[in-house]
Amino acid sequence: MQSLLLGTRNPGKVEEIKGILAGSGWSISSLQAFPDVDTPAETGSTYADNAILKARFYALATGMCALADDSGLEVEALYGAPGVYSARYAGENASDADRRALLLCELAKTSGTNRRARFIAAVAISDAKGTVLNVSEGICEGTIIDSPRGHGGFGYDPLFVPDGFNETFAELPEDVKNRISHRARALMNTRDFLSSCKSCA
After folding, report:
1. For a 10 Å CB count at each end of the chain, is N or C smaller?
2. 201 in a structural domain
3. Would you call 70 a catalytic residue per the annotation?
4. Which CATH number fits the domain that encloses residue 183?
């Protein structure tokens, strides 16, 4: 079985990605097995740029085929912010709760009632030599609520209600989220690629 490294140490994200890629025929590990590997600066101007630079970095650092993703929340009333800066929105060492609080504070300053938002994700795979093999993207439209709800997920999940549902990403069952989320949609295309990929050496 071929091996694939997930370029993240976020346990919630690891479980989410493993669940979606299950059955792809690949043995999956994460950066938790490589404590000495650094994290590259996310200097890209798009989600795809950041996913690619991380996938290549982790592949070259470990000698493994690597998958990395980048995602962000784009809020219409904030002109697309926090966007590619979603993970660093409240500063480098801020918590998820800090980022959610800042987002709600910034939304409170807007004059309208527009709460429309969308999550966007890009997933890239690099072979062990740093060659990008595949890039997939996914989008999930929804709205931002006034206060966090739910204990599942991570990041902005407790604030985001996807279209067609009344629950936030943090309230929805994992199997539902893993079917409709932006990352799930990008990863489903990635899974199709992995299932048909003969070698990632």
Report:
1. N
2. no
3. yes
4. 3.90.950.10
